[in-house]
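Key result, reporting period 2: structure in, sequence out.
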């Protein structure tokens, strides 16, 4: 979205956008383009928050790429408002075994809130 300058937002909220892109034939490419653009427009200290039903073993490999410069934490939110976390995700984004070791979801019918804070000087 070239109409927005670099580092022009302090927050970006995603409720299902990445999930929708992951259903297409060009999912990997579309996800990469979307997340790169979010990283570009976020200022240092800004937050990309993604709400999804997908656990870390399914989503961290996309949002955890070092090129985005994000510190990633995930919260699990249960059906009745129970909250677990934050879990700081620091392992290699391509290590599905490490992501599965978190044993999430731990509650039935839960959702996940990923909080990705852009690193760097403010």
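The corresponding designed sequence is given below.
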């Amino acid at each position: 979205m070239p109409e927005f300058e670099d580092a022009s937002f302090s927050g970006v909220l995603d409720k299902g956008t990445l999930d929708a892109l992951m259903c297409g034939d060009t999912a990997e490419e579309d996800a990469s383009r979307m997340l790169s653009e979010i990283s570009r427009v976020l200022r240092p200290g800004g937050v990309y928050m993604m709400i999804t039903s997908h656990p870390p073993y399914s989503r961290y490999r996309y949002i955890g790429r070092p090129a985005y410069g994000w510190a990633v934490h995930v919260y699990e939110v249960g059906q009745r408002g129970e909250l677990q976390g934050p879990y700081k995700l620091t392992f290699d984004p391509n290590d599905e075994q490490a992501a599965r070791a978190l044993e999430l979801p731990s509650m039935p019918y839960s959702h996940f809130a990923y909080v990705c804070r852009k690193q760097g000087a403010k």
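The beta strands are 9-15, 42-52, 70-77, 83-89, 111-118. The chain is about 30% helix and 35% strand. This case is discussed further under Risks and Mitigation.
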